[in-house]
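OP here, attaching both records as promised.
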Amino acid sequence: MGVSMTSNNFERMKIILSMNQSFDYADFLRICESKGAHPLSINEYALKVGFIEMAKIKYPDVPIEEGYLKIVEDGNMTCGNKEDKPLPSTGQQAINLVSGVAHHIADGLKEVDEKTLEFRNNICDACENMRSDGRCSECGCSMKIKAKWASAKCPAGKW
């Protein structure tokens, strides 16, 4: 694997994982201070939480640290096939991800019910913006993850 994790990054990830899904930024800062770990900015924190959540879903059968590294590595590679619409710029995707994760955290990590999730997934599966890698060409998000979040919105306004 081409990505490695520094000891400080690893310590921060362990802190986030130990927070029992509360993902409260103030708690994270207090824990970092007590453990002597350099904290992350709120945007970096939201990005890391998002990557951890994606790793749990995409790689459920591997240790979370390994899944996290795979998510980071996946983000550094080009996915999809030639028929796929292009994704937004990497910078715009990062902005979209950080914004989405921040809203999800602010919403208390609420998820939609099964009926709503099925409705959203059906719309995404039929959408011209859905790529073969499961990402939306409008926002760059993994829609199987985004569709679960109650605070999430379709960038094309379809749900």
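Record two, same layout:
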Amino acid sequence: MEADLLLCDHAEAVNGKLYINGGGWNAIFAPGLPISVYLAALITLDWNESNIRHQLVAELLTEDGEVVENGDPPQPVRVEAQMEVGRPPGIRPGTELVAPMVLGFQGLTLPEGGYVWRLASGDAVLARRPFQVVAPPAGLPGFPPGTFGR
């Protein structure tokens, strides 16, 4: 099993397809401000991995590998899910199967720095997607001077 992971402003998985808005970013100008992040994943399974329940874990880590905590009280930014992909009727034996999955995280408040989303199944890391939270450059529209203490 493997996965492709995309960071998005919004995403949905409907009828076996991903619908993505504002996807593919790796930097966000919002240190200390609440943000929403959607993880759009396309999971590819080998024929022999179908019709088996798989445990998935998505978690947010610092670039140093530490678990990120958020909220009040602070809790790890982590979601556990189960997935089982069946074989569609008439598909040729041995065909790889794909399954879209979307996880949404609202109200994350992250300080400036580097982060990575990690998607795993058991001990196997399926995908990693790094990103940066950075202060906006001076004069960026929509951010008054001094918003981020610079």
